[in-house]
Amino acid sequence: MTRLSFVCLVVLGLVGTPFARAADTPLAQRLDHLAEAAAARQGFMGAVLVVRDGATLLDRAYGSASLELDVPNTPAMRFRIGSITKQFTAAAILLLEERGKLRLSDPVARHVPEAPETWAKITLYQLLTHTSGIHNITRLPEFRTWKMLPQTPLEAIQRLRDLPLDFAPGEKHAYSNSNYLVLGLVIERASGERYAAFLHNNVLGPLGLRDTDVDRNVDIVPRRAAGYTRFLGTFFNASYTDMSVPYAAGAMYSTTHDLRRWIERLLAGQLLSPASVERMITPEQDGYALGLRVVVGEDGRQVISHGGSIAGFSAFLAHYPEEKTTIVVLANITGAVSGRLARQLANILFDDAAP
User: Fold this and answer.
1) What is the DSSP string of 283-343?
2) More confident residue, 18 or 261
3) What is the bridge-based pairing of β-strands 302-310 and 234-237?
4) How far is the C-alpha of 146 from the C-alpha of 69, rounded, in Å?
5) Which residues, listed in sequence order, are joined to residue 302 by a DSSP beta bridge?
6) How many CB atoms are closer than 10 A to CB 124?
7) Which helix (H) or strand (E) holds 58?
8) Taking the CB of residue 192, how many other CB atoms lie within 10 A of it?
9) How far apart are CA 39 and CA 228, in angstroms?
10) Can you name the residues that pair with 288 across neighbouring β-strands?
């Protein structure tokens, strides 16, 4: 890319600048300097959005969307969001409950009769809150091999059916991607639509989320960033994952701006009834609600959040309702840098402590 073409892209708003569409204030500069330091020292590549009470404090991208093609990241880039997908799945389940298609108290077998007998007492609510006891499929030793192969939801259940439960349903909380794989199939059975189609027609479309969808490897997706991993300071292409494998537990992509729209419109009741929204953000065990983690810190500040990690990408979405603040960090590099950076940005924003 020539210098002239780069300048043209900046003018058109397609390449992030330090304070594009954001306030140029000492606070905004501190936020940007922190993200720049993460890019320089930790190899962070991605996009960051910080909005407080309607004012954009940081809206910038860092690093490359494609190292091979020398294409810079921009705030408009689409990144895989991993387990942030779970809150979209949870909202879809609540929407189906409002329409009388299911109840959260339903046993899994009512919608998935192929479920093993050991799951007989597991309810949809326990799947949503990770209190079912179903073993986490991504922890199986063979997962690294067959994650590269196409998989149907029923095939995932077949891989799990002969495994004993990790604990009795409802006994405790243990995060398991398996729960949301099953919920994806429940959505398909209750709605009569494929998971991706139901989300598109009933969640994403109505909320105006045009840069968010369920990813498929074969699709040509404009502005989709490539995923990388970093080892000893050197970048490598991330390992391949067939996106049918993460499915309703982690197969979506989005942008920083769409995720901000999502969480704010969801909590404002633009998709679900007030009762369903309240149910979605009411924690069960260990601060986990329905596809969201809802905790109150030692300072008394409530945060509604969730992270996501999938080969080549990490993501973190945090919303502070009382402060009317949303922080979104999306990265096209493997690792926990997104969550760490989001928390450090919050420290600066609320002046709790220097990171």
Assistant:
1) --BTTB-SSSEEEE-TTS-EEEEEEEEETTEEEEEEEETTTTEEEEEEESBSSSHHHHHHH
2) 261
3) unpaired
4) 29
5) 296
6) 25
7) strand 55-62
8) 9
9) 14
10) 285, 293
CB atoms within 10 A of CB 101: 17
* Angle between helices 256-267 and 85-98 in degrees, nearest 10: 30
Residue 147 has pLDDT above 80, yes or no: yes
Residue whose structure tokens are 């999938």: 310
- Cβ within 8 Å of residue 337, ≥6 positions away: 38, 42, 43, 44, 314, 331
Which residues touch 355 (CB under 8 Å, ≥6 apart)?
Answer: 34, 343, 344, 347, 348
Catalytically annotated residue among 83, 178, 276, 305: 83
For the sheet with 293-296, list strands across it: 55-62, 46-52, 325-331, 313-320, 302-310, 293-296
CB-CB contact of 179 with 130 (8 Å) = yes
Tokens describing residue 284: 């069960």
- The H-or-E segment that residue 106 falls in is none
| Cβ atoms 57, 28 nearer than 8 A | yes
* 42: nearest Cα among 347, 355, 262: 355
Neighbours of 339 (CB within 10 A): 21
Q: Which amino acid is at 111?
A: H
3-state per-residue secondary structure call for 188-238: HHHHCCCHHHHHHHHHHHHHCCCCCEECCCCCCCCCECCCEEEECCEEEEC
**pLDDT tens digits, residue range 26-41?**
999 999 999 999 999 8
- What global pTM score does this model have? 0.92
The rounded distance, in Å, linking the Cα atoms of 94 and 102 is 9
Q: Contact 65/72 with Cβ under 8 angstroms?
A: yes
64 is catalytic: no
Query: In sequence order, which residues have a C-beta less than 8 Å from that of residue 285 and are 6 or more positions away?
Result: 129, 131, 172, 173
- Span 206-227, pLDDT tens digits: 999 999 999 999 999 999 999 9
